[in-house]
Write a structure and sequence with these properties.
single chain, mainly alpha, 184 residues, two-stranded antiparallel sheet, 2 strands, 41% helix
């Protein structure tokens, strides 16, 4: 009689733990695989070569737009200040840039990690006192671009800055977290 009770109790606990384990696997591994697709950049870009090798800083290529927002990525015209259509460069990636984009006068279709939704207004001009790496990954010391993961539902990058990150920083520096500060 005692053995039957112990057996029944174990029969209820085991399915429970199997269910918890299955939920954890689905939540932590399967769901992100389904939600995000990994996409490749047109070619690799080494920020390290430009920062360490050429002594450039973020603002050398990423400049402000007239409204204080960021232009984001430099145009081919900015790159052509240093790169020539006649010189293929030292790496395969530089050759791809020159032959596929610069010589064909075609802008590079970079996948941008930090695009914000249309209802968010973000001014880089208002955040001038901060280091770029306070909000962005430290790509200046990187030879390779990070993997780009696109949310299949929203279309935004997985690396897009999240609202909670903005709110946390605003709270830390004593800036208002009122809706109208970031949402127009």
């Amino acid at each position: 009689m005692e053995e039957k009770r112990a057996s029944k109790q174990c029969g209820g606990v085991l399915p429970f733990f199997i269910g918890v384990l299955a939920s954890l696997i689905i939540g932590w591994w399967v769901f992100p695989q389904v939600l995000y697709s990994q996409k490749a950049q047109p070619f690799n870009f080494s920020h390290k070569v430009h920062v360490d090798g050429e002594g450039m800083d973020c603002e050398s290529c990423h400049t402000y737009a007239e409204d204080g927002s960021f232009n984001g990525l430099p145009s081919n015209a900015v790159c052509a200040d240093c790169h020539s259509e006649d010189v293929l460069g030292d790496t395969k990636d530089e050759e791809i840039f020159v032959t596929e984009y610069l010589q064909k006068d075609k802008e590079v279709p970079w996948l941008v990690y930090q695009y914000q939704p249309d209802n968010v207004y973000f001014s880089h001009k208002a955040h001038e006192g901060f280091e770029c790496t306070d909000c962005h990954p430290d790509l200046g010391n990187s030879d390779t671009l990070p993997a780009y993961y696109e949310n299949r539902i929203s279309g935004y990058s997985k690396q897009t800055m999240k609202m909670w990150q903005c709110e946390r920083c605003h709270a830390e520096v004593g800036t208002s977290n009122a809706c109208y500060i970031c949402h127009k």
